[in-house]
Amino acid sequence: MTISNSGSNYIAGDLIAASPGNDFRAAFTVDNFAISAVRVLNLGSGYSSDAILTPVYAGTTTAMENSVTMVKIFSGGRNYISVRPLVFVI
């Protein structure tokens, strides 16, 4: 994933996807309270339309308060054979 705007006032956490798919999870790290890296932990499956990613506290499904409330992936693609960078826009 590529971070195009790292934001501010963050603590490290995870990103999870809401329906229509399941099991997507990524972790993000911060440096000086700005997102510095995102690592996909599980690609998930069953996505038939755009997924909405929600930042949650690490290892939980509890949404972060006073932070980004969701991230929408407009074109996640499909049928990938090799790893390809995704763009993470905040």
What does it look like?
With 90 residues, the chain is mainly β. The protein has one domain (2-88). The protein has no helices and seven strands. The chain has strands spanning 2-3, 13-17, 25-31, 34-42, 52-57, 71-72, 87-88. The strands form two sheets. Strands 4-3-2-5-6 form a five-stranded antiparallel sheet, with no helix packed on it. A two-stranded parallel ribbon has the order 1-7. β3 (25-31) and β4 (34-42) form a beta hairpin. The radius of gyration is 13 Å and the shape is globular. The relative contact order is 0.30.
> For the terminal residues, how far apart are their CA atoms?
12 Å
Reported for the largest beta sheet, the result is: 5 strands, antiparallel
Could you give the order of the helices and strands? EEEEEEE
Alpha-beta classification: mainly beta
- Strand percentage: 35-45%
> Strand order across the biggest sheet?
4-3-2-5-6
Unreliable spans are: none
Radius of gyration: 13 Å
Average predicted local confidence, pLDDT: 76
Question: Roughly how much helix do the residues carry, as a percent range?
Answer: under 10%
Number of helices in the DSSP assignment: 0
Give the number of domains: 1
Tally the beta strands.
7
Give the overall shape.
globular
